[in-house]
What does this fold into?
Amino acid sequence: MARNHWIPPWAVLFAQLAHGFSWGLIFWAAWSGSAANALTGFAWIHTVALAWITTAALAILLFALPNFIDVEWRGQTIARIALVFFAAGTAVLIAGFLGPAKLIAFGGCVVFAALLVYLATAFATVAAGLRGERIPRAVARAFGITLAFLLFTALLGLGLAFMLAGKPVGAWISATPPAHAALGTFGWISMLIFGVSMRTLRPITGDGTRMRWMHIAVGSFALAGIPLLAAGVASHVSWLSWIGGGLFAAGAFGYVLDVLDIVRRAVVPHRPPQAFVVASVLWLLCALVLGAGVLAGRPWEDAYIFVLLAGWAGQMVNAHMYHIGVRLIATVYRGEDDETRPQEILDARLSWFSFVSMQIAIVLVAVSLLNGSAGLAARGAVFGIGAWIAIVANMFGASLRARVLPRTIRL
It folds into this structure.
């Protein structure tokens, strides 16, 4: 096997373990009665946002970013090493939320330092892309902005980690959790999905957007709205929050329409990833409704952040796991030039079971967070764990089939 695969397999494995842990954490919180504990909630949020989604995203970017902007990644070996420390720091941070508070500051420092190193190489790669042709330049600028949102999110997160660990910080830090959340979920995760999915949906569906102007509009509205939303929620200026949220929602609606149009015209016969994509964008719409309720003063914060992360972002990650993740498995065992299609080594029954069970899990937990039913949350977590086990079993089965099936090389 190659020393450096196009995506580090260990990072995808770590992300999947974090995914499973997130559902186990919900079950434990509901069963033990600690669901209302703020630190338990922080542990779940960072398990999903950092350990699962961001680790997977940073690993995929090692391959996607240079291919999107037609340059080589500057200092890729350093970036891969930094990603190891990022994952380790994330694990320590989560342990701090669930145990000794002093680990929160230590884990936060490791995460921030590792991210700085990774981002230094990423920004150098983006800078090289800015010297290319018109389209790669535009893509490089978009990635640069998205990575900048990640950096600002990490800066605020480091300050909050010190605050939670009891370290002396400025009083203004206590007002920044909503801005930290807005920059992380919208500026980093959502903007990344908006950009990357416009390329990755083509292999998943076999077709691309018919509305390139829509992609520009989506990015423009979101980019204008996110800083206003973050500033508004941090300063408790309601009208600013509504303007920022409205601008982001306008961009999100355009993205949803574009994605649904792409999936409607899909010609690739492998349907489970496409189903996860559709579920993802529908959960995004649900999250926007819940978010509007939060801005209007409704006590929907927990359900909103859950649907935003587990529904919108999480289901999009699952969609890519069933395509990019399976392609990675195939190339690990069959060589970098192998072109085995995911459906050739996956079990369709497990794929569909994981899809249905995952959507049931999200519905049950979201409803439980709205009405305060711990029992319903526990049942939802059981469905989530079942869906996760099906995904892992499917990937394990795919790895076994990848070893024994004849190699598929299309010239």
Summary: The two ends are 21 Å apart (CA to CA).
